[in-house]
Structure formats: structure tokens, C-alpha cells
Design brief:
By secondary structure, the protein is of the alpha/beta class. It has one domain: NAD(P)-binding Rossmann-like Domain (Rossmann fold). It contains eight helices and seven strands; from the N terminus they run E-H-E-H-E-H-E-H-E-H-E-H-H-E-H. The chain has a seven-stranded parallel β-sheet, sandwiched between helices. Helix 1 packs across helix 7, helix 3 packs parallel to helix 4 and helix 4 packs parallel to helix 5.
Length: about 270
């Protein structure tokens, strides 16, 4: 199986679980040094340097794995990127960086593995989405939009592949204690960088445990983590949607300022948080 974004957070925790269960795991990421660290930490992991934004590297990842192992049974699209700020403040590079990572790379990797899975009549594609799709709020508008696209892709692909043996799973977590905030500020944290503290949220292993369960259960569905986050889907229904719109209009400025401050503190503040 192939797991993207394996050097930190949910991807790292899931790779550890899958290896412990006896799976062969090809883990990819952009940072060669961190890949080596994870390889040393997780014996059995097969590290492959791959930037999911690069079409040549995506193709090489899939073809190299198939050449080595004969097939890809599972693809975990975990690599993702956030952005903290308003749309008006973004550059074209910011937009392309987020969408290329969260949407284009994910869809194309899935496209590349599907022929082999369909030929066998069996396979699993798991997508790491976000609860942000159910309540798009500043300063995460573009990140939430990218995850809206991911969820739309998942829904359509499930319908496209119904009855053909390939299961499409998605996991939509709430806030997770990862390097999300640092990376949203265009930082590339080194292993155990003392300046970078995790974003506030649940342990990544909690999300990894749910992802592992979904792969083992063999049902293609969308699961919120924690499950209560799924209730936010009700905010799409009137009159709750109108109430949510009003509340967010009144608080969007403060939320944006708080998001920026929190990201900066977690990335550049002292390790003890003072």
C-alpha cells in the first residue's frame, strides 16, 4: 500500500499502525531527511521521495511500486496543505500550492492506481479530508474549498466504481495536533524543530485508528472524527444555514486575526508557549 504525507501527523501514525498489522507500506513525502528519520523509526517502511504536486514524481511513485511489488492494493491520499488568511491576501502561488497538493495530486494519484485495482476487481482508496467542508470559515476559506472538491470527488468516484470491487473511503477529522499551522505559513519544519508546536487538537493516532478501521472493514463511506463533527452537516439546512451565515459574518474578522496569531505563536513562539 502507498501512504502519502508519511513524515508527520496522521500519515506517520497510520503508517505505524499498518506496519504493525503486517502490511507492506510505501511511504512518500518531499523531505528526504525526514523520510529517513521515519524510516529509522518505523522498520519495514519503504521510503520514496515524492512531491504529489509533480506529475512526473506521481507517475514514478506508482510505477515504481507496481514494478517492485506487482500491484497496489491500497492508496492513502493523506498529503495535504492549509492556508491561514483571507482570499484577497493570497498570491497566485498560494492558490496553486494548496490546490495542487490537496486536489490535483490526490485525483491524479487515484487515477494512476485505479486501472490496476479494477483489473483485479479489488482495492481501497482512502482520502483524508476535513470537517472544514461542513462549515467553511475564514481564515480557512481556500483550504475548505479544496476539501469541498475532495469530498465531491469521493462521492462521484464511489458512484462511478459501484459494484466494481474498489472501495472509496474518506475520513473527515476536526482539529488535529499536527504541523498544519506551520505549513499553512509556508514553513517546512525540520524533524523535532523546537520552534514548532502542534496545532491544538486531537492526537493524530486517534484519526489514524479510524482510518485503519475503515480500511479493514471494507466499506466505502465517509466518517467524521470525532463522530459528533458530522452533525455540522446540518448547518447546510435552512434555517440553520442562515443562522450560521449571520454568525460567521459577525465574527469572521476576529476569527481571521485569531487564526493568524495562533499560527504564528505555534510556529515562531518559544517551546514553552510564553
Amino acid at each position: 500500500m502507498v501512504v502519502t504525507g508519511v513524515t508527520a501527523g496522521i500519515g506517520r501514525a497510520l503508517a505505524a499502525r499498518l506496519l504493525a498489522a503486517g502490511a507492506t507500506v510505501v511511504g512518500c513525502a518531499r523531505d528526504v531527511d525526514r523520510l529517513q528519520t521515519v524510516h529509522d523509526e518505523l522498520p519495514g517502511l519503504v521510503p520514496v521521495r515524492c512531491d504529489v504536486r509533480d506529475r512526473t514524481e506521481r507517475k514514478s511513485l506508482v510505477e515504481g511500486t507496481v514494478d517492485r511489488y506487482g500491484r497496489i492494493d491500497v492508496l492513502v491520499n493523506n498529503a495535504g496543505l492549509g492556508y491561514i488568511g483571507t482570499v484577497a491576501e493570497m498570491t497566485a502561488d498560494d492558490v496553486e500550492r494548496v490546490l495542487a497538493t490537496n486536489i490535483v495530486g490526490l485525483i491524479d494519484l487515484t487515477r494512476l492506481v485505479l486501472p490496476g485495482m479494477l483489473a483485479l476487481g479489488d482495492g481501497d482508496v482512502l482520502v483524508m479530508s476535513s470537517a472544514a467542508v461542513w462549515l467553511s470559515t475564514p481564515p480557512l476559506t481556500v483550504y475548505a474549498a479544496s476539501k469541498f472538491a475532495v469530498d465531491g470527488f469521493v462521492l462521484g468516484l464511489r458512484r462511478e466504481l459501484a459494484g466494481r470491487g474498489v472501495r472509496i473511503h474518506s475520513v473527515n477529522p476536526g482539529f488535529v495536533a499536527t504541523e498544519f499551522l506551520a505549513r499553512a505559513l509556508r514553513q517546512h519544519p525540520a524533524e523535532a524543530d523546537p520552534r514548532v508546536r502542534p496545532a491544538p487538537g486531537m492526537d493524530p493516532d486517534r484519526v489514524a485508528r479510524v482510518a485503519e478501521r475503515e480500511l479493514c472493514d471494507g466499506r466505502g463511506r465517509t466518517v467524521a472524527v470525532p463522530r459528533v463533527m458530522g452533525l455540522s452537516r446540518l448547518l447546510d439546512l435552512p434555517p440553520l444555514s442562515r443562522a450560521a451565515d449571520l454568525g460567521l459574518r459577525l465574527t469572521s474578522g476576529g476569527m481571521t486575526r485569531y487564526g493568524r496569531r495562533l499560527a504564528a505563536e505555534r510556529t515562531f513562539g518559544p517551546p514553552d508557549g510564553r
